[in-house]
Amino acid sequence: QQPVQSPQAVILREGEDAVINCSSSKALYSVHWYRQKHGEAPVFLMILLKGGEQKGHDKISASFNEKKQQSSLYLTASQLSYSGTYFCGTEDMAGNMLTFGGGTRLMVKP
Amino acid sequence: KAGVTQTPRYLIKTRGQQVTLSCSPISGHRSVSWYQQTPGQGLQFLFEYFSETQRNKGNFPGRFSGRQFSNSRSEMNVSTLELGDSALYLCASSLLLPGQGVDTQYFGPGTRLTVL
Predict the structure, then answer these.
(1) How far apart are CA A66 and CA A27, in angstroms?
(2) Are B42 and A96 an interchain contact pair (Cβ–Cβ within 8 Å)?
(3) A85 CA: distance to closest CA in chain B (Å)
(4) Which one of A60, B27, B65, B102 is least enclosed by Cβ atoms within 10 Å?
């Protein structure tokens, strides 16, 4: 089953913060976050593993609540370059494949 | 390092035809996954190959198939094309180590398939 992302879309001014959520009905092993700009391929942002290990960027952070099977992506002091569609991909305990959410469209305006 | 390459970038076919798409992974990556992206369904997993073996398959009909060669290059084939197969087909490679789950996916630019 596909994870559910919220919100579906968000508009920000430069410098504002945003939170994107990803919820799954399955027990998760990992959550992956990708950003896709229009006409381009998705680009890796972050992996969060069961057990708390996190990899990613300094200016973009994320959390993984294993009990609730939820992950949140935090974008602070947004920049114009943050615009794009953000996807979470979840790997359940059966493993070895990613199921992507429907995406969150983020637009940052000057 | 060169990124993931996919050929062709654009393709127009008619219903009933078949199509083969190609993907060359990043050098050293042995895992190749294929995804279908459409506005309505989003990003959907098709299948994954590792060391010439299909490790996982998504929920797609048997018309969708793939293979991986000894140099890790991969092809996917769609037979008897339907209008609904129009989509962006993305290939992603990863450096998968034994015992790991899904590693970082490095996506190619995709092949835009239009079925008329």
Answers:
(1) 8
(2) no
(3) 11
(4) B27
How far is residue B111's CA from residue B58's CA, in Å, rounded to a whole number? 19
The residue behind tokens 């953000």 is A86
The per-residue pLDDT for range B12-68, each reduced to its tens digit, is 999 999 999 999 999 999 999 999 999 888 899 999 999 999 988 999 999 999 999
CB contact under 8 A, B104 and A101: no
- Give residue for tokens 């229009």: A38
Q: Which two tokens stand for residue A26?
A: 């399955």
Q: Distance between CA B21 and CA B7 in Å, rounded?
A: 6
Which DSSP symbol is given to B80?
S
CA dist B64 and B77 (Å) reads: 6
